[in-house]
Write a structure and sequence with these properties.
This protein is α/β, with parallel strands linked by helices and 323 residues long. It has 13 helices and five strands. The protein has a five-stranded parallel sheet, sandwiched between helices. The termini are far apart. The chain binds zinc ion. Zinc ion (ZN) is lined by residues 46-48, 53-54, 57, 59-60.
Length: 323
């Protein structure tokens, strides 16, 4: 199922009060699956009170950054690559606590196929004793290996693989871009610097995730020489993710250019952020918007030349604000 269609489907179920307690989300838990979970939970928690999540309010940002008090994320442990029974027990306990925001309590299990048998059985107990307004999302790219007893208690949403090419990191970048509203924060320059700081912090997280991903794939003890290979692989993976994110950044500024030149929202890549984009280009001329696109292209070139991210964005974003 296309991600947008799946989101629409679940949003409607939510509005009608028919949301199931647990969904198996078939897709890569690190990319499409995680992005789907973030988008769906933003719909549940967004404080802006519109149909679609704003992506910019505190609740939306906390969901994207995995810091929302009512959303628990569970990942396989590094060494065993399994989700252990202790993790599940801890989770059950935390799910029983009252929601901080007074509405939903959600749990995202990244890699549900990594639940060991004991852990899966402990988890089943939770599903058998449903408590109101709790939602479990079981992300997995190996739904066929889940225990039939787990499958029978969940609804399944199968996502198309890599349909958009956007990763969870791209979605977080979009949240940073959409949340950029100079008028609210104060001076344009200060806002640009704040945005640069968030971008630099995000890239740092991406770098760590790339290293973790490579380490996990290596699985176990490695020699010093292998270690060097792993480092090289991690840095290649990071550059790949970063290039994707720079493409997203460029498309964002391309959308601003479209609007600044009088185009309409149907022509946007990120139509769902139409309102934020429109607010950002208020008073921006077509030629200024074109110069912004050129600056973003420059930033990408500077990164390719191995200039440090802190320098590139720390100078680049204020430059964007001053045109
Ligand atoms: Zn929101």
């Amino acid at each position: 199922m296309n991600t947008e269609v799946a989101l629409q489907f679940l949003s409607e179920a939510h509005k009608a009060g028919r949301l199931a307690q647990a969904y198996i989300v078939g897709g890569d838990p690190k990319t499409t699956g995680a992005a789907f979970a973030v988008c769906l939970l933003q719909r549940l928690f967004c404080g802006a009170g519109r149909g679609a999540p704003c992506g910019a309010c505190a609740a939306c940002r906390h969901v994207a950054q995995r810091t929302h008090a009512d959303v628990l994320w569970v990942e396989p442990q590094k060494k065993s690559r399994q989700i252990g029974v202790e993790q599940v027990r801890d989770l059950m306990q935390r799910m029983q606590q009252t929601a901080y925001t007074g509405t939903w309590k959600a749990c995202v299990i990244c890699g549900a196929d990594r639940l060991g048998r004991e852990a899966a059985n402990a988890f089943l107990k939770t599903l058998e004793e449903p408590s109101g307004n709790s939602l479990f999302l079981l992300l997995t790219d190996g739904a066929q290996t889940l225990l039939p007893t787990v499958v029978s208690r969940c609804q399944t949403v199968m996502l198309d693989a890599g349909e958009t090419g956007y990763t969870a990191w791209d979605r977080e970048l979009l949240a940073i871009l959409a949340g950029h509203a100079p008028a609210e924060i104060g001076s344009k320059l200060l806002a640009a610097m704040t945005q640069a700081q968030r971008m630099i912090a995000l890239l740092k997280t991406v770098k760590e995730a790339a290293a973790d991903e490579v380490d996990e794939a290596a699985d176990g003890e490695v020699t010093e020489q292998e270690n060097e290979t792993l480092d090289a692989r991690a840095s290649a993976r990071f550059r790949e993710l970063r290039t994707g994110m720079m493409r997203t950044l460029l498309r964002w500024y391309r959308d601003r250019l479209v609007l600044a030149c009088g185009g309409d929202e149907a022509q946007l890549v990120f139509g769902e952020h139409g309102a934020a984009l429109r607010a950002q280009v208020r008073g921006v001329s077509g030629s200024a918007a074109l110069r912004h696109v050129r600056i973003v292209e420059d930033l990408h070139k500077q990164l390719e030349q191995n200039l440090p991210e802190a320098l590139v964005f720390g100078c680049g974003f204020p430059r964007l604000a001053s045109v």
